[in-house]
Amino acid sequence: MTAPSLEVSGLAYRYPDGTQALYGVDLRIERGERVALLGPNGAGKTTLVLHLNGILSGGLGSVTVGGLPVAQENLLEIRRRVGIVFQDPDDQLFLPTVRQDVAFGPANLGLRGAALEARVAAALEAVGMSEVADRPPHHLSFGQRRRVAVATVLAMEPEILVLDEPSSNLDPAGRRELAEVLRSLDVTLLMVTHDLPYAMELCDRSVVLSDGVVAADGPTRELLADTELLARHRLELPYGFHPSADPAP
Amino acid sequence: MGAAHTRGLYRPGSGPVYALPAHVKIVAVVAFVFAVVATPATAFPAFALHAGLILIAVRAARLPAGFVLRRLTVELPFVAFALALPFFAAGERIVVYGLTLSEPGLVAAWNILAKGTLGVAAAVVLAATTRPYALLEGLQRLRVPSIMVQIATFMLRYADLLTDDLRRMRIARESRAFTARHLGHARIVAAGAGSLFIRGYERGERVHLAMLSRGYTGTLPDTGTVPATRRDWLFAAALPLLGALIAAGALLGAA
Prior knowledge:
Chain A is built from 10 helices and 10 strands. The longest helix of chain A has 14 residues, at 113-126. In chain A, β1 and β2 form a beta hairpin. Helix content of chain A is 36%, strand content 24%. By secondary structure, chain B is mostly helical. Chain B folds into 2 domains: 2-138 and 227-254, no CATH class; 145-213. At the A-B interface, α2, β6, α3 and α4 of A face α8 and α9 of B.
């Protein structure tokens, strides 16, 4: 039996200013699962994400990725295994051309030459962005930039892809295109969002994080049908959206 | 947005000078400037020869003369300073066309003008034929401290975003019927600048976080720069070597 892609147990964290953000989070994600992490603003979603690759640490509990504990001595390998796509692609794409940016991660891992080029080509191919490789990121549309941002972490061949609000600021077509890309990837996926229909479209399983603890964990369709649960955690379905009316995947 | 292709001093084109690796060109231009500066101010024929070298470089780079002349206007403030020198400098005075001028002042003015113009012209050729990012990669190859190259890289990348932010903030102000009419409004504009600074700072933190997440350890991996061949070095060395010969000739002639 292979180790789960992600195992978080008893994770608690208090920021240096005294704000307690996580109060003991337990979460296990098997290889190949697609999971939505739902929760209102301030629930601790971002804090949890930043623990997954060791940017934040020092609280209680543990995180392991593909069996490897997140610890100082494993940091480079952990950051290869956990690919975080941040909310604003302009934060992620900081180099002059798309190609250089996609190469940045694997180059930090020591890849050079033909092996590096192959990685970059494969990652851009996976998100359908091969033809923009030599363009500067600021010449791309927002949706294209987000897909390139996904490619920048795919190029590191991660064990788990973590997306922070992947659908934010996308137009409907960009949203659908990104969904198609994400569905086509053969990788474990954790999607942080409060876009509930998007969670339903892409993830069979959802986890509700609220006030620093996992408040619910189950099939997305069931969670979204539980209006009382949603209301307790400041989650709301968009007007006119009924989870039962949605076509089964 | 299309303007970003030609933003800055770069002029899209092709040819042997464009094809040279950036670090080779940087070394050639800096060495040439040293040769020019080493030439004694009164060795007038030497400056004509230096100017000839620059003309050849402009031709080799296939830059139009008008373009180079327009770019040279950047040195105008120094020209104004140089022109004032003959009037105000001390020393022996001579009469030129009815004006009483200081002779050392005249030589100093010529010195600034000639050396300044040659240096700026060489820099114009460099900047016009080398993309801004290639210049930075060249500096990195030349072992300029990595942190400085990275700062300049980020500045280039994020300058557009910051100007966009600034433009949106101005539109938002004006949409609420604000126009800066008198000095009292400076406070409002300054507050905008302050919030732009905070936004820039916060973006810097987010970019850093995203970089750490992809295994950044403090240096940008060099993946794209073109190594220079011996031919590149020889071709580029022609400018500073000939410049050095001219300077040496002038120095020996003066001795």
